[in-house]
Write a structure and sequence with these properties.
Distance between the termini of chain C: 29 Å
Helix content of chain C: 55-70%
Structural class of chain C: mainly alpha
Largest sheet of chain C: 2 strands, antiparallel
Radius of gyration of chain A: 21 Å
Strand order of the largest sheet of chain A: 1-2-3-4
Oligomer: heterotrimer
Strand content of chain C: under 5%
Strand content of chain A: 5-15%
Helix content of chain A: 40-55%
Chains: A alpha+beta, B alpha+beta, C mainly alpha
Order of helices and strands of chain C: HHHHEEHHHHHHHHHHH
Number of helices of chain C: 15
Shape of chain C: globular
Chain lengths: 371, 158, 358
């Protein structure tokens, strides 16, 4: 490890970016080596918000451990919960009612849009435009209100239970989502006008931080970050879960692998998610919102794995059960960690301003990396 | 040709910048788009959805009766050890000893509002309240006893 | 009506009648100094509030609205807070330079006030090389920034200062070239002459497209020179956390902050003087009736109106555009602004020689 204060032998400057730095969106600590303005090396240091959620889950029952995953990738809390619920359902061989499935997917896509909208604002802010951040929150607020009404909380919903969802959707849900769709369709072109088309934004992102397809695969990049490099890694398509195999949507795959391409993939994904919501909102089947389960869940002995596509990529839950009341071991595969590992490779040789832009385009959520 | 490309580049760049400025200019002049909620001022009109999870409370009837039997299902369901039910034995009219709740201790500072206790409660004794202004000057104020003093178990709740 | 020149004359005569000339001069200087500092404080308060309100409306929020009626006292409260805050000097800084830098920034900004004509015949010092003086003094600002960045003993500050050095040195060229177009057209470096030359129409209307181009280049270049977004390389909040003023706090920070806003005001005032006629009301050629109506509006109002319009333009830029990268910033200057500016000045010279302007 290098000395954290000072310079190297070659006269390169070593700078701590973080743990408190406006660009890291959390408590990520990067030790970067600078040659003038050019970044030579980036060394991420983790552990500032490690809460040992995996270990903690070993002492929680199968109903309880789901809530903790909301605190990992808090921007796609609902989708994380979905993965956990699915792992338990696999173990219990529970049949989830159709209505619950549809509600899960609907909420999941709303969460995805909310996450991408926030990312859009934050990325623009990283690059130096402050206004988009506030505009992004306008739409995010609508989704948060929908969540609040149906799930009871805005960010860490904990709406999933093994076998379905906690409550039925709120009577206003249908109307609210319709309103949101109309509003979002009106405002998306504004997003493009404000940021996507902007020549400064394009200059800052095009050809910056190119991640080749081979590198994306070998670093295990997933989600929009991997797809921008041309890897078809959308779990919703590759290994469909829930009702995704019956839905009409596209897997957005970029070609360039640069920051702009990562940006475009996410922008397109918002449209795809909106398309999914439009398909489902008028077709929520009647029926139970929760399967009948025992009060105390006991997953049979065995190993279960479920993976979902969160807003950041491939999220996996590996559940080992010894047949007891609590899991024997839980392992989470979080997308942020693998995506972050590609940062050093991507940033080398770029300018310090690009580091911020690239980090923004990776859409890092630090609790997701640290767990 | 070099020059035409040079100037068309400039024209395109300026065009895209003007588009962005038109956008912000629109919002600068249209104040009805402002979405700020003036929070402490609008407290009276603030409506929170009925499902909003603010804190756990115990419902009491007008006769100071609650529905908690002291079964500790909520305590077991809680992932954080937020709830501690202290039970006592009451002698009822028939002279039988019966378990009842003495103190329902709720640690708000540990609670993550996951709703699992409410789901677990067999008698619907507790529910989530829509309050959200939880800041206090002393941490001890966050530890609450939810059953009111001298409250009794409601008739017919087993 | 509204003639400020009478007021200044009155004070001038009274001072010279009652005191010996040396004393009178000293008193005049003191009065001017107090007026400038007062204007400074006032402008700082107004501009900070204006920036916050403009940004708020563009970002669909309300902005400061708690202190005083409609939040008008907000910047006063901020100033009070900064005044009572501890002016910390961190360990390991070069104390002398660290404490000197904010004052250099302030003095450089103050000196720029001298040749600006705030209203008809209302000018601190109408020196005959006014425009040259402004271009010369405005580059002093970089010294303060370099000093602050270097002495802070902070790598972020150093990076910010070095960026700012590269930026201001290169953008001075385009700013100078675009100022030169007006000087060529007027044939004088004196501010009062430049304003008088626009009595039958402002240069931006009289000078055809080349002056319009010069105006655009001037606006871009001075935005860069005053270190404001999208060219705020020296501060670059998301990259360098605060750039050259990362380590400053309290009143020392406030001085930097104030100097930035005063610089914004001054470059906009110069822009208004050169291209939009300064205090000169909107005159169209020989339409004496129309010109007469326009003359009814006091000249100081014209001056401040134009200046604040340009300031608003700069704020509009700031809250719309993302930040450029340092190499793109220099690219913009050397590949676009400077060549265009050079060709432009040739065109303007041709126009001036052939008297094609109105």
């Amino acid at each position: 490890m290098v000395e954290e204060i000072g310079t190297t032998d070659k006269g390169e400057l070593i700078i701590n970016v973080g743990p408190q730095h406006p660009a890291t969106h959390g408590v990520l600590h990067l030790v970067i080596t600078l040659d003038g303005e050019t970044v030579r090396k980036v060394e991420p240091h983790l552990g500032y918000i490690h809460r040992s959620i995996e270990k903690m889950s070993e002492s929680l029952s199968y109903r309880q451990f789901i809530y903790a995953t909301s605190r990992m990738d808090y921007l796609s809390a609902h989708i994380n919960n979905h993965a956990c619920a699915m792992a338990v359902e696999k173990g219990l061989q529970l049949e989830v009612p159709e209505r619950a499935q549809v509600i899960r997917v609907l909420m999941g896509e709303l969460t995805r849009i909310a996450s991408h909208v926030l990312w859009w604002g934050a990325m623009a802010m990283d690059i130096g435009a402050f206004t988009p951040f506030f505009h992004a929150f306008r739409e995010r607020e609508m989704i948060n209100d929908i969540m609040e009404e149906s799930c009871g909380a805005r960010l860490t919903m904990n709406y999933m239970v093994p076998g379905g969802v906690m409550y039925d959707i709120h009577p206003n849900f249908h109307r609210r989502v319709k309103e949101f769709i109309a509003q979002f369709k009106r405002k998306l072109p504004e997003y493009d006008e404000l940021v996507t088309g902007n020549t400064i934004f394009r200059a800052r992102t095009r050809g910056v931080g190119v991640l080749s397809k081979e590198d994306a695969i070998s670093y295990g990049c997933s989600g929009p970050t991997g797809r921008a490099s041309g890897v078809d890694c959308d779990i919703r398509k590759v290994q469909p879960y829930g009702i995704y195999d019956r839905l009409d949507f596209q897997q957005i795959i970029g070609t360039e692998g640069d920051t702009y391409s990562r940006y475009l993939v996410r922008m397109q994904e918002m449209r795809q998610s909106l398309h999914i919501i439009e398909q489902l909102i008028d077709n929520i089947p009647e029926g139970d919102f929760q399967a009948k389960t025992k009060a105390v869940l006991k997953v049979p002995k065995g190993e279960y794995y479920s993976r979902v596509e969160t807003a950041r990529g491939d999220f996996g839950v590996y559940l080992v059960s010894e047949g007891g009341l609590t899991p024997y071991r839980i392992k989470y595969r979080s997308p942020g960690f693998s995506n972050l590992s590609a940062l050093d490779h991507t940033v080398r040789g770029q300018k310090i301003g690009d580091l911020v832009a690239i980090m923004g385009s990776f859409d890092l959520v630090i609790p997701d990396i640290d767990r | 040709m070099f020059l035409t490309r040079y100037f068309s580049e400039i024209a395109e760049a300026v065009g895209s910048l003007l588009k962005g400025m038109r956008m912000t200019g629109y919002y600068f002049t249209h104040h009805k788009e402002i979405i700020t909620q003036q929070y402490p001022d609008n407290r009276a009109t603030l409506v929170l959805p009925e499902r909003f999870r603010g804190e756990v409370v115990m419902t009491h009837t007008d006769n100071n009766e609650h529905r908690c039997t002291g079964c500790t299902a909520c305590e077991l369901a809680c992932p954080n050890g937020t709830i501690k039910v202290v039970t006592k034995f009451e002698v009822n009219a028939e002279g039988k000893k019966k378990k009842a709740v003495d103190k329902f201790v709720y640690h708000l500072e540990l609670c993550t509002m996951c709703n699992l206790c409410i789901e677990a409660c067999p008698t619907d004794a507790i529910r989530m309240a829509q309050t959200f202004e939880h800041s206090v000057y002393d941490r001890s104020q966050l530890t609450r006893i939810l059953n009111k003093p001298d409250s009794k178990l409601q008739e017919g709740v087993e | 009506m509204w003639n400020l020149a009478q007021l200044t004359d009155l004070i001038h005569r009274w001072l010279y009648e009652t005191f010996p000339p040396a004393w009178a001069l000293a008193f005049e200087m003191i009065i001017v100094g107090i007026a400038v500092i007062g204007l400074f404080a006032g402008l700082g308060l107004v501009l900070v509030l204006m920036e916050r309100k403009v940004s708020a409306f563009m970002q669909i929020r309300l902005g400061p609205n708690r202190v005083g009626p409609k939040g008008l006292m907000q910047s006063l409260a901020d100033t009070l807070k900064l005044l009572v805050k501890e002016g910390m000097t961190p360990d390991g800084v070069d104390r002398f330079l660290f404490n000197l830098a904010p004052f250099i920034a302030m003095i450089a900004a103050m000196l720029l006030m001298a040749p600006i004509a705030f209203a008809k015949d209302f000018q601190i010092w109408d020196l005959n090389i006014g425009v040259l003086y402004v271009t010369a003094i405005s580059s002093l600002n970089v010294i303060a920034i370099l000093m602050a960045g270097w002495s802070s003993n902070n790598k972020y500050s150093l990076l910010g200062a070095m960026r700012s050095g590269a930026q201001i040195v290169s953008y001075e060229l385009s700013a100078g070239l675009s100022i030169l177009t007006v000087v060529v057209l007027t044939g004088s470096l004196q501010i009062s002459d430049i304003v008088t030359a626009q009595s039958n129409g402002w240069w931006i209307f009289k000078g055809h497209i080349p002056v319009l181009i010069a105006f655009v280049i001037y606006m871009i270049a001075v935005t860069a020179e005053t270190n404001r977004a999208p060219f705020d390389m020296a501060e670059a909040e998301s990259e360098l956390t605060g750039g050259f003023h990362t380590e400053y706090s309290g009143m020392k920070f406030a001085l930097f902050f104030l100097a930035e806003y005063i610089n914004v005001f001054i470059v906009c005032a110069i822009g208004a003087t050169l291209f939009l006629g300064g205090w000169m009301p909107l005159h169209i050629g020989e339409w004496s009736a129309f010109n007469g109506i326009m003359d009814w509006i006091p000249s100081s109002l014209w001056f401040f109106g134009k200046t604040f319009f340009l300031i608003f333009l700069m704020m509009w830029f700031r809250w719309t555009f993302p930040r450029l990268r340092i190499d793109q910033l220099l690219n913009l200057e050397w590949r676009y602004l400077l060549p265009i500016g050079m060709v432009n000045i040739l065109l303007v010279t041709v126009i001036a020689i052939l008297k094609w302007h109105f």
